[in-house]
Design brief:
Layout: H1 3-58, H2 67-76, H3 85-102, H4 106-153, H5 156-162, H6 171-183, H7 188-198, H8 202-217, H9 222-245, H10 247-270, H11 272-279, H12 282-306
């Protein structure tokens, strides 16, 4: 055997040994390091996400000062104020400052600024309630229309389409789009889930559950649909009766609001000198601020009685 061959064999043995040592020692250590680094990164990412979540939760209230957030909320109830968000939010706050300065009371100014921040959201809440009332009434009409059509045709898709004729806005356009998408072949469950999120009334969620059951299992569900519509009608009639019974209380709160505003304006203009003396003491400022708070509370009380 030549010397060259011996060197070649020795070199081959060394290479195989090094390869073996690399497999035995290097690769496991590398895998362990990779897994450890991955675990460390996962923990670090989790900690970062938790810190970001805490930070965002601390300042979450600031979103109520952002006009775009207010406009987005208004868009959900089809209240078109695009571009007017800053005027509504900041204009209301400036009005609160002006009222406080007009009343010559720093305590009233503080309360008026807070009231100016609260007023646009209070208005949006009232509009949302009226929107939900309209949707609830139209959902009742929708259920009756679908139930009547299904009792005749026993075809769910055809019944959904027939129900369009009896609807009004704001539900009509949404249901027309729903029917078009259903006709194009989209799954009924997905369409109903999306529409349930858009419609802020629990009655539609009940109706959607019935439609899903009919779509999956078939059968005659017209009686069930009519029962759901009857329950919705019954609840609405009870609410209307309760509102009628509370009408006197609402009127009393409105009368109190008018009296409170009249008293403040009377003392501010008709008794200007005495009013200035009153505002020079902390007791007078507390009295005027208390009256202002009572007026704001009365607005809230009237709204609460209206939403029953």
């Amino acid at each position: 055997m030549s010397q060259t061959t011996i060197y070649f064999l020795l070199l081959l043995v060394v290479m195989i040994a090094l390869l073996y040592l690399g497999i035995v020692y290097s690769l496991p250590k590398k895998r362990f390091r990779s897994w450890a680094m991955g675990e460390k990164e996962a923990i670090e990412n989790k900690v970062i996400k938790e810190m970001e979540a805490r930070r965002s939760s601390k300042f979450e209230f600031l979103k109520f000062c952002i006009p775009s957030f207010y406009e987005a909320k208004a868009a959900k109830i089809e209240w078109d104020i695009e571009g007017k968000g800053p005027l509504i939010l900041y204009g209301s706050m400036l009005t609160g400052i002006a009222i406080g300065l007009f009343m010559e009371s720093y305590l009233t100014t503080i309360v008026a600024v807070v009231a100016g921040f609260w007023a646009p959201w209070f208005l949006l809440q009232m509009k949302t309630y009226r929107y939900e009332e309209k949707i609830s009434e139209q959902v009742e009409v929708l259920i009756q229309g679908v139930a009547a059509g299904y009792a005749i045709t026993r075809n769910l898709d055809d019944s959904l389409k027939r129900a369009i004729d009896g609807l009004e806005e704001p539900l009509r356009s949404k249901w027309e789009l729903f029917v078009v998408e259903r006709t194009s072949g989209q799954p009924l469950d997905d369409l109903l889930d999306r529409l349930t999120e858009e419609l802020p009334v629990k009655e539609f969620a009940m109706f959607a559950s019935v439609l899903k059951t009919v779509d999956k299992n078939g059968g005659d569900a017209s009686d069930t649909m009519k029962q759901v519509a009857a329950v919705i009608l019954s609840n609405r009639m009870l609410n209307e009766e309760l509102k009628a019974e509370l009408a006197d209380m609402r009127q009393a709160h409105r009368f109190n609001i008018a009296i409170g505003i009249a008293i403040l304006l009377f003392f501010r203009f008709a008794q200007a000198e005495k009013y200035s003396v009153l505002m020079s003491s902390i007791i007078g400022q507390v009295l005027v601020t208390g009256m202002f708070l009572y007026i704001l509370w009365s607005f809230k009380a009237v709204a609460k009685l209206t939403r029953i």
